[in-house]
Amino acid sequence: MSFTEEKRKAIIKYMLDKIRSSDSGFLRKTADNFDISETSVRRYVKSCIEEGILLEDQDSVCGFCLTESRGQWDLENSGLEEDSVYFEKIAPMLTDISANAGDIWYYAFTEIMNNAIEHSQGDRILLEIRKDPLYTEISITDNGAGIFRRIREYMDKKYGIRTDTKQAALELYKGKLTTEPEAHSGEGIFFVSKMLSEFAIWSENTAYTYRCTQGDAFIQSHLISYYTRIKEIGTMAVMKLDNDIKHTSKEIFDQFAPLEQGFVKTLIPVREMCPLGNPVARSQARRILRRLEEFREIIFDFRDIEFMGQGFADEVFRVFANRHPDITLTAVNANETVQGMIKHVTHGGKEADIS
């Protein structure tokens, strides 16, 4: 049986992704997913070995590993310029990725590197890049004060709000947060996270993650690289991107910040913002709603949310909505139970857009 080149690439990418995650059942799963025989999958394995993108690995539970190139740098944070570091250290290792991926990496790296240079208050910055046939991962680590500590101090000074480390991390989901508003707009982390395949920030033993399917493992694999090289970690940012990513950086900007309007729309991933359980309490809603009056549209993503309490729903979709009639509230990926609660609290009042 012969396949189109597109299907052949899809089979190989799926298989390599399973191997990358050390899935011992990659042969059967690939065969089942594409309705082919395990013998055919083994032929793809052999082909990938011959092409030099796959290696036999007795230490891996699946018997194979992807070929990987790495780079590590220990930089003194004195006179550094983020674009110069990118073109000198990072860009030479990204010559064979797609144009879309290259554009995103330039933006993402320079934004996060600038944070480390200008905001961390540390004197050392450690960089690591890992690149295999599917993905590139880059981590940027400093020995400064720590991002969540700086957010806590800023929220206390600016708004008179005392927050703990975990609450400080949740503020990053909203966007428009910077501890130095006179010099920065607070857009960098928000847009970087939306462009990448996976993104995480670790500080004070607390993690902010976006799209991380195995967040702990994603972070720990990079932390291990630094424990032997730096006595104290202030902040570590870990970024991962598909080498052949289809969306562009412009598409992400246009989605949330049209040129003629600015940064007017934000996305609230409710599951991530309520890590201890379903959204139930008014206090949860009030923490989420802090600073959201700065936007014209707020999208609440209810993916993986089974139930929403009346208090939470009322605080968001009636109280906040009535106080800010000029702000559009949109609920996406909401199941019937969540949709029903939204309709219940908005009966006779301003309704949210549910899709």
Written account of the structure:
- By secondary structure, this protein is α/β, with parallel strands linked by helices.
- 43% of the residues lie in helices and 19% in strands.
- The protein has helices at 5-20, 26-34, 38-50, 82-90, 99-118, 147-159, 165-170, 188-195, 215-227, 249-256, 270-273, 282-289, 310-323, 336-345; strands at residues 54-56, 64-66, 69-76, 124-131, 135-142, 198-203, 206-210, 235-242, 265-269, 297-301, 328-332, 353-354.
- It has a six-stranded antiparallel β-sheet, sandwiched between helices.
- β4 (124-131) and β5 form a beta hairpin.
- It is globular.
Shape: globular
Distance between the termini: 41 Å
How confident is the prediction overall: mean pLDDT? 91
Number of strands: 12
- Per DSSP, what share of the residues sits in E-state strands of 2 or more residues? 15-25%
Q: Count the helices. How many?
A: 14
Radius of gyration: 22 Å
The helix fraction, in percent, is 40-55%
For the largest beta sheet, what order do the strands appear in spatially? 3-4-5-8-6-7
Largest sheet: 6 strands, antiparallel
Label the structural class. alpha/beta
Element-level helix/strand string: HHHEEEHHEEHHHEEHEHEHHEHEHE
Uncertain runs are none
Please specify the SSE layout and strand pairing.
Elements: H1 5-20, H2 26-34, H3 38-50, E1 54-56, E2 64-66, E3 69-76, H4 82-90, H5 99-118, E4 124-131, E5 135-142, H6 147-159, H7 165-170, H8 188-195, E6 198-203, E7 206-210, H9 215-227, E8 235-242, H10 249-256, E9 265-269, H11 270-273, H12 282-289, E10 297-301, H13 310-323, E11 328-332, H14 336-345, E12 353-354
Parallel strand pairs: 9-10, 10-11, 11-12
Antiparallel strand pairs: 1-2, 3-4, 4-5, 5-8, 6-7, 6-8
